[in-house]
Write a structure and sequence with these properties.
It is built from 14 helices and 13 strands. It is of the alpha+beta class. It folds into two domains: about 65-190 and about 265-340, no CATH class; about 190-265 and about 350-390, no CATH class. Strand 6, helix 7 and strand 7 (about 175-180) form a beta-alpha-beta unit. Helix 9 (about 255-260) crosses helix 13 (about 365-370) and helix 12 packs antiparallel against helix 13. The longest helix is centred in the middle third of the chain and has 19 residues, at about 190-210. The relative contact order is 0.15. Bound molecules: flavin-adenine dinucleotide (FAD) and iron/sulfur cluster (SF4) (3 copies). The site of one iron/sulfur cluster has 15 residues, from helix 2.
Length: about 400
Amino acid sequence: MIRIPSNCTGCSACISVCPKECIRHSTDAEGFMTPLIDPSECIDCNLCEKVCPALNQNTSNRTMEFLVGQNESYDITRQSSSGGIFYLIGKRVLDMGGVVYGAAFDYNAGVSVKHLRVTDINDLRRILGSKYVQSDINGIFRSVKKDLSEDRQVLFSGTPCQVAGLKRFLRKDYDTLLTVDVICHGVPSPEVFSRYVKEVEKRKSDECGKIFKITHFSFRDKLYGWNSFGVSYQIESSDGSGDSEKIFRGRYEDPYMKGFLYDLYLRESCHDCPVKDFSSGSDITLADAWGIETIMYSPSFDKGFSLAVPHSEAGKECLSAIGVKWQHADLNFMVTNNPAAFKSATPHKKRKTFFRLINDGKSISEAVGICLPEPTFFSRIMWSISKKLKRYAKK
Ligand SMILES: Cc1cc2nc3c(=O)[nH]c(=O)nc-3n(C[C@H](O)[C@H](O)[C@H](O)COP(=O)(O)OP(=O)(O)OC[C@H]3O[C@@H](n4cnc5c(N)ncnc54)[C@H](O)[C@@H]3O)c2cc1C
Ligand code: SF4
Ligand code: SF4
Ligand code: SF4
């Protein structure tokens, strides 16, 4: 029977593989999914241990091919985080009669993020865009296996730890499976996000004296361009009056996004990630092509560019078949602009304080405000002087 590792990623491979179904989803004190074992049912088959990507780490699958490209449709890049490449990959699989799995918002009870099975091109849009919350993957690995056993073409997309978990759960290679992951900085707690959404809804409802609900959320709104992305949400009155407002906030103005960017509430495993350096076993890794202006010029920078890294023949074939004019980048470009590919994020020094504060009843916005106070005029000046000195020392 598995001993849950300290860097358990919550991938759910152990839960999905257990023949006695004696491991179930539970939630830890920080609001992250954690497996909970009922030892009375266990038959000591050890399958759970064998499939765990945190206990059985893969070696790096790094290739030296780094491609930069963009989807030509503005309608798609607008809804995607970077260059809208994921949409083209998903569309190709759907055109072949296949099935696509990816993370989508669910607005049924509050706002949450869940993996979704898509067979219709119109639903593919629901998967577009990065959601900075750990997605609920309950039951998805078994569904993927069922589709594969019925000889369907399957595209599974997710974080590297989810891809690694799926591949270990499947325990064999399928020619009909294509996996896409992202360069992953880390995922915040679903509980923190859910509480934040409730706070926003309550504030608006109190202000207007009627119930308001968020009906659309984006972590990567490109209103002011890809490099200046912010958070936006549509908030609507539930009384059918059509009273509705779209709110946009710069990424450091929105308390939740600010806490994410400062690594205040990432999952513990994201600080000791077992699948860095392209070791998930995915066919393709996608990322933001940050720093692209240093290697090329384009009038459409503001729409966003993706970095795509193929790791297998199937990945290469797919990227060459989706009609993108690729530019080549090199490893140095990757290392400089995407450190999250190789290195786990360092936890913010106030991480524990943050969870203590919210468990003591502080709101998410209050706790973020306490842990990440606005810099004073004096500290801004000191920061600017130290930056100038560092630049001078480098010269
Ligand atoms: C949590 C997270 C952290 C990231 N960190 C970085 C980073 O540090 N540096 C970097 O360059 N890029 C990072 N990315 C990737 C990047 O933001 C884009 O997703 C990627 O460039 C693909 O963009 P696209 O425009 O081609 O497609 P998009 O439409 O933006 O991509 C959608 C894809 O993201 C997946 N996805 C979205 N949210 C989640 C989620 N919560 N869990 C699992 N899968 C999800 C969907 O399943 C789909 O495959 C991160 C993405 C996520 C989800
Ligand atoms: S050892 Fe086998 S039966 Fe026991 S928890 Fe693990 S997978 Fe389930
Ligand atoms: S990393 Fe995945 S397989 Fe391992 S214990 Fe955690 S949920 Fe289970
Ligand atoms: S940083 Fe690593 S452990 Fe955290 S979500 Fe991403 S892949 Fe999983």
